[in-house]
Amino acid sequence: MKSIGEVAAQFGVATHVLRHWETEGLLAPARVGDRRRYSDADVRRVAAILISKEAGFGLADIRTMLATGPAPDREEILTRHREMLRDRIARAQAALDLIEGGPCTHDELMMCPHFQNAVTDRLGPRHTRTADQRAIGQPCTAP
């Protein structure tokens, strides 16, 4: 059995974080007097919570996923989160494509065809590109 301080140090989190997770129903360490005592199972649960947080899950979803219950509840959360991650990855890839477009020598950013292309993409499918706009990912050089 470990103290709250030992568990917090093991994972590099503050003790108030573990207390908060307990308040949120994610942890239920044993009590010896007024002191929390964490079993190996509790420590594993802390690791599971941290892994889930690093994957971007919120505490409510983590609580549902770690609860004993029907697998469809977990699957619904995972499906929703998977779609959110795919969207975040697509936005991050678009940002990387914009940055990797090469050094832009235009004096005004809004005059850069490469940047204009990114703006047009953000505006949506109703907007069309002009003939001088290049595809994202292509180097930008001023004429």
Description:
It is elongated, with a radius of gyration of 24 Å. The chain has helices at 4-11, 15-23, 40-54, 59-66, 71-99, 113-123, and strands at residues 30-32, 35-37. The chain is built from six helices and two strands. The chain has a two-stranded antiparallel ribbon. With 143 residues, the protein is mainly α.
Topology of helices and strands:
Layout (H helix, E strand, L loop, with lengths): L3 H8 L3 H9 L6 E3 L2 E3 L2 H15 L4 H8 L4 H29 L13 H11 L20
Antiparallel strand pairs: 1-2
Strand order of the largest sheet: 1-2
Q: Output mean pLDDT.
A: 85
- Write down the secondary-structure element order: HHEEHHHH
- Largest β sheet strand count, sense and barrel closure: 2 strands, antiparallel
Question: How far apart are the first and last residues' alpha carbons, in Å?
Answer: 69 Å
Shape, principal axes of CA atoms:
elongated
Q: How large is the count of helical segments?
A: 6
Which structural class should the secondary elements be placed in? mainly alpha
The low-confidence runs, each spanning 5 or more residues with pLDDT under 50, are 131-137
Number of strands: 2
Radius of gyration: 24 Å
Oligomer designation = single chain
β-sheet strand percentage = under 5%
- Estimate the helix proportion, in percent: 55-70%
